[in-house]
Each structure stands twice: as structure tokens, then as C-alpha cells.
What does this fold into?
Amino acid sequence: MEHDAVVFIELNGQPVPAGKIRITEEGRWSRSEFAYGRRYLARPDAVAIDPVMLPLNEKAFETPPEFPLFNGVRDAAPDAWGRKLIDRYVLRQFGRPAGEAEYLLASQHGTRIGALQFGPTPSGPGRVLDFNLPSARTDLGNLEALQRQVDAVQSEEDLPDQLVNFIAPGSDLGGARPKATVTIDGFPWLVKFGIDHERLPMEAVEAGCLDLAEMCGIDTCERQVVEIACRPALLLKRFDREVADGGELQRVHMISSLTLLGAHESDHGLSGYADIYDALRRYGAPGDHSETIYRRMVLNVLTGNTDDHYRNHAFLHGADGYRPSPVYDITPTLQTSSSRYLFLHLGKAGAGREATLEAAVAGAASLGLQPDQAKAIATEMAEIVGRNWRDVMERRGVGDDAIRLMEGSFAQAGRQLEGGPGCGM
It folds into this structure.
């Protein structure tokens, strides 16, 4: 089966037709073709949908083997949670699971991540399939109803009829945990819902980890923890939206490190932080991004966050290229082993993934840092996290038992590197 759509990208607050995509589904397999429009290529402000797979030229592109979608297009589609919701809706309506094109095109409302939209013709974004997910505006007043839907989905129950209209607000946001977009004072925020019977209150824990990141000089987004249905939920101000000079809300083109590296989602352990740094040197905004990437790598070591996969690193496009987005999805991984291994190598691919301060410092040279500078940054961050993480978690409402469970995850925090200078604090 073939599905054709026009791909729009928002430029200066307006959706602009960039090109056409065709998604072909043959049983379990899918592939895509794409071509930019000549008018789009002639624009002085044209932006590549995907700088690696879809550079700006008149070529007719095809996805490589095993890629159902181009990475830059896939970034606009939902990940695990959104795909689960779309599957539930399609199964309810048509008695079958959803296909790859339906994951991408089923929802055309305004919460889609990044600046891409889709439509049937160049006249504007709109319904492409023979169905469209229901759309509903979500605000703080109806989050308890949405939490009940989350619980129903998690427990594999049938969705109550009155809650079907709440599917759309969470259907096109990446990530595995339950989430939706909520409007606060006219601006979209991401709300991450708590899951019942978890060992850790992950939403409060993530807020604490973002607090620690900010203390370590890492860019974070505005956030708050609220209680919904007697559980903590995390509100994050979306960084893929901005307010224009005239007060209008605008989309910002955003890609993941999967796109920046031209990688496949199954490429576990085949890339490193230095590969992201090198890609930013090619496609990023002018400036030195070495310390920015290095601090994020060290933070994942210090917080025991081994879920640093490709989609948990994002980049926002500006007038001069891509810059790292604020950090997100920083949470400790609970495990019995004392050794932890990140998804990405600490340096170039092949450098090793063991999450230690020594490995981080050893990989710093491939990020363009001098050894003394790398040691000083790692030592300072370790001291900050080691001194503060328990108090930060307590202030976010994390209980004593949960804090004790996380102690192994923060084992690198507070350590002194041999020969590493103190931070003078």
C-alpha cells in the first residue's frame, strides 16, 4: 500500500511545502521516497528536513535498507507511548494494528514535535489518511481525566468512551513514558504522568536530575512537579516552540542525534559522544560545542543515566545551524550491578561505554578538550552532584526509601579524580 503526503516545514511562523513523501508498506516492511519541490529549493531560507539523509538538492531520495522512514521525518513521528495510543485507536476503530504511515500521519493537530507537518496537497497541512485522530484541547483542569486514560492504557483495559477524545494530545510526542501536551497561559507544556506501583516516583526524580543539571551549568527547560491523582507529574515547558515578536507561537525545527548521525535505531553502542560533537562541527551553529557535549556526558555518568539513547539528544535549528536543545529524560537506572554502561561511548565509537569519571576524562580529547580542563569540569560536577543530590531529591518530594534505592546510581558523584583540582566551593 502506498501513502503520499506533502511535507511542510514551518518557516517564520508559516507552514511551507518542502517536498513530497511516499511511504510504501508491504506486509511488515516499509520504505520511503522523498523529493524536494523546486520552489522550496529556490528559497534562500530553505532548511534541509534531514541534513544527512535529505540534503538540499533535486535528487529523488530513497530510504536505505531497514529504514522505513528518513530519520528527519521519523523524528516528527511518535515513539513508544504515542505509537501505543495510535495502535489502540486503530485497533478500536478498524480491528487491526496501525502501520508505519499511520503512526506518522494519523494526527495533524498542533502538538506534533518540531516544525514538520503533513498534508494531502501543497495548499496546507491537513488530513492525509482516510481517518484522523480526534483532537481535544488539554489544560490543567482535565489532567485527572487524562491520568485515568493513562492508567487504562497501562493496564491494557478498554478505553472508556468519554476518554477517547483525550488520545490526541499525547499521540505525537516522542518517548516511552505516558505524556501529553497541556496549555498553560497560552504556551504548550509537556506533562509526564506518574505510573502506579513504580519503585521510584520517576517524574519527581527526573525533575531533581534536571535541577542537578542546571546546577552543573547545563541548559535545562522550565519545569515544575504537580500532583495528579495522588501521584507526582512533571510539567516541562516545551523548547520546540517559541513566541515571535508579534506574540504568535512558532514551531522550531528539531532533530534527534539519530538524524544528526544518520544512525539506525538498532545501532546500540555503535556511536559515541565525540561522534555527536563531530556532527555538530559539520551541521551545527558556529561556535565550540565541546564543553556542552562533555558536560552532558559527565552528567549521565554522575546520575547513572544509561538511557542516553539517540532520541534523548535533540538539536534545534536556528538561523545559523543546529544547537543542542535543553537536556531532558535524565533519570538514574536502577540495577544490582555496580558497573554501569551508557548507550553511547564516552568519546569516539569504540572508546568504551563504562560510566566512570575516568572514562569520561579519557574521552574528552576526542571532544576537543584539554586534559586539565576535562579533569577540572568532571571534578567540579562530581562535587556538586555528590554534595546536593539527596537534598535536591528530597525537595522534589522523593522519599527516603527511593533515595536509598538510587544510591548505587549516584556512585560516581562526589568522587575525586586522582590529580583532579577541587572546585573551590
Confidence is low (pLDDT under 50) at residues 161-166, 420-425.
